[in-house]
Amino acid sequence: MTFTETTWNEAKELAGRYPHSRSALLPMLHLVQSVEGLVSSDGIALCADVLDLATAEVAAVATFYTMYKRHNTGKHHVGVCTNTMCGLLGGDAIWNAISSDLNTGHDETSEDGKITLERIECQAACTHAPVVTLDWEFFDDATVDGVRKALSDLREGKEVKSTRGPVIKGLQASERLLAGFDDDEFDAPAIDEKMLAGLHRAREVGQTLPSSEV
Amino acid sequence: MVLTPILTAHWDEADSYKLEGYKRHHGYVALAKALKSDPDSIIQTVKDSGLRGRGGAGFPTGMKWGFVPQNDGKPHYLVVNADESEPGACKDIPLMLANPHALVEGVAISSYAIRANHAFIYIRGEVPHVIRRVTNAVKEAYAAGLLGQNIQGSGFNLEVVVHAGAGAYICGEETALLDSLEGHRGQPRLKPPFPAVAGLYASPTVINNAETIANIPYIIRNGADWLKQWGTEKSPGFKLFAVSGHVKRPGIYEAALGTTMRELLEHAGGMRDGHTLKFWIPGGSSVPMLTEAHLDLPLTYEDMAAAGTMLGTGTPMVFDETTSVVKAVSRWLQFYKHESCGKCTPCREGTYWISGLLKRLEKGEGQETDLEKIDELCQQIMGRSFCALGDAAATPFPGAMKHFRTEFEAGVRTAADIAFDPAATTIFSKANV
């Protein structure tokens, strides 16, 4: 596809944010993916053009990182962590259930084009295992039923919220944020009891510090 | 030892992640103090505090800063490693979510100390909710004159860029992170030269973990001796311990270094009802596992090393008797295989073969010679790979064999799912499975 002037300008803006423009390559790949839902040959060509690189150099980078998709994706990206902690605590069961529901395997897209499914690696939320991601927004302490409901709502176009606040808007919206174009969702409430477990326990057992120190 | 809510002290306040909330609790007081001091004195304070890197290796932070050559005429860079991806590690993510300004203030002070006018916060790409919070904190700091040109009239300039990764565990390795930040495939570099001499854009660069940098404002404001009231001589200070797994209250527990796992377990409510501890891993899948026998060891860099493991990221994973060790280790090796960058042969090929052999042991289809073969492969990787990822991949199997050899031997005949009912291992074992 042909990218609009806006995308070209945004790509150039990214290049200007770094002392050496090539540092903008990862954000720029997120940007073209936010427009197309994948990193296409055209997206690679845009990055190469803006950064004065060979397309082969850009392709070499795009294929190294798992978040960049070289094939079409569904409206939503659903990741199920099946690394040891999440997998054993319930991620495997969740994966089996939804992969079978959707008749969709790893890195495949459901027939209706709504959901791309992926077995993902550790998301740095083991305290909240099993963890599922919806367009990379966290769905903590997931259950089979909870994920089934979320996916069915997403497919019907109903509002689904991350357990850490933000509304799930689609993979392309998340990719735009990762490219470095902020949205207004930072106020979404994200702190839960597990993150506060130690603080609450410290208060309970009287092990807090004087307010002059912290 | 005690719980020490410091970085976590105000996480339950609705605006803990905002400038206003942070300032209410001495936020940016340390920066003002730092900007009035000689940069070398800041480095000295951090050296005196004994602070060690919180990313896993535990390298003394002040010493790292001291390696940066001064008056060399080159630009200097500070890079924050917030690419938290180690299986089990989940402490930088909540820290940046709830208290991003401690990181931003730490970035400003640290940059001033090493004479950097440009800093980067490299956050893994899979966490948009955290990237939003840190980006917003940086914006707020710019607007308040705490970043940017001539900060608080000091003449010090600092530009801070929040940079998202794109899904590659290897980028947590510091030189791979630099390559990634320069817009390349994230593959590690040969050392020397070390980043302190030739890092980002071949210029002197300090790379520190996010939790390490978030410690800095508290140390600068309260002094080096303040940090040393906790922990041991070799491991001073406090740590965000993230306890996960089969415990009643998994979560973030900030405590003095030297706290024991038994104490942490008690804070976390103990094992889930009706179950007993089988094994635990002190700091990510890359460090050898321990058992009940090690619960009273102090969680310090030196005590964990003496026990043949590492403190690592300080994020204990806890598993009960329903867990198949073979399956756990097999799954970690799948991970290392997936994340191996492919640059060096021992890691690329070794992780492929080990994960394959473990997979068939997990299925109960192993051969008698498999254990020996895996052990040999681990030895071929250990110390021979280009970076620590290879060594990490060679760690879980020997570590597990030390305690659970018979379970692996059973893999020749019995599938892990037969020996251990997978439904019983899940946390929702009563329903839905």
SSE topology sketch:
The complex is a heterodimer of chains A (214) and B (433).
Chain A: H1 5-15, H2 25-36, H3 41-51, H4 55-62, E1 76-81, H5 84-102, E2 108-109, E3 115-120, E4 132-134, E5 137-139, H6 144-156, H7 171-178, H8 197-204
Parallel strand pairs in A: 1-3
Antiparallel strand pairs in A: 1-4, 2-3, 4-5
Helix pairs in contact in A: 1-2, 1-3, 2-3, 2-7, 3-4
Chain B: H1 19-23, H2 29-35, H3 39-49, H4 61-66, E1 77-82, H5 92-98, H6 100-114, E2 118-123, H7 128-143, E3 159-164, H8 174-181, H9 195-198, E4 205-209, H10 210-222, H11 224-228, E5 238-245, E6 251-256, H12 261-267, E7 277-281, H13 301-306, E8 317-320, H14 325-339, H15 345-362, H16 370-381, H17 388-393, H18 396-410, H19 416-419, H20 422-425
Parallel strand pairs in B: 1-2, 1-4, 2-3, 5-8
Antiparallel strand pairs in B: 5-6, 7-8
Structural class of chain A: alpha+beta
Given helix and strand content, the structural type of chain B is alpha/beta
Q: Bin the strand percentage of chain A.
A: 5-15%
Order of strands across the main sheet of chain B: 3-2-1-4
First and last CA, distance of chain A: 54 Å
User: Do you know the CATH topology of the largest domain in chain A?
Assistant: Glutaredoxin
CATH first level of the largest domain in chain A: Alpha Beta
Q: Unreliable runs of chain A, pLDDT <50, ≥5 residues? A: none
Q: How many structural domains does the protein architecture of chain A include?
A: 2
Largest interface: A-B, 83 and 98 residues
Keywords, please?
heterodimer, A: 214 residues, alpha+beta, 5-stranded mixed β-sheet, 5 strands, 42% helix, 9% strand, globular, B: 433 residues, 4-stranded parallel β-sheet, 4-stranded mixed β-sheet, 8 strands
How would you explain this protein's 3D organization?
With 214 residues, chain A is α+β, with helices and mostly antiparallel strands. Chain A has two domains: 5-62; 76-170, Glutaredoxin (3-Layer(aba) Sandwich). Chain A is 42% helix and 9% strand. Chain A has eight helices and five strands, in the order ααααβαββββααα. The mean pLDDT of chain A is 97. Chain B is of the alpha/beta class and 433 residues long. Chain B has helices spanning 19-23, 29-35, 39-49, 61-66, 92-98, 100-114, 128-143, 174-181, 195-198, 210-222, 224-228, 261-267, 301-306, 325-339, 345-362, 370-381, 388-393, 396-410, 416-419, 422-425; strands at 77-82, 118-123, 159-164, 205-209, 238-245, 251-256, 277-281, 317-320. In chain B, the strands form two sheets. In chain B, strands 3-2-1-4 form a four-stranded parallel sheet, with helices on both faces. In chain B, strands 6-5-8-7 form a four-stranded mixed sheet, covered by helices on one side. In chain B, β5 (238-245) and β6 (251-256) form a beta hairpin. In chain B, α2 (29-35) packs parallel to α6, α2 (29-35) crosses α10 (210-222) and α14 packs across α18 (396-410). The chains are: A alpha+beta (214), B alpha/beta (433). Chains A and B meet through α2, α5, α7 and α8 of A and α5, α7, β3, β5 and β6 of B.
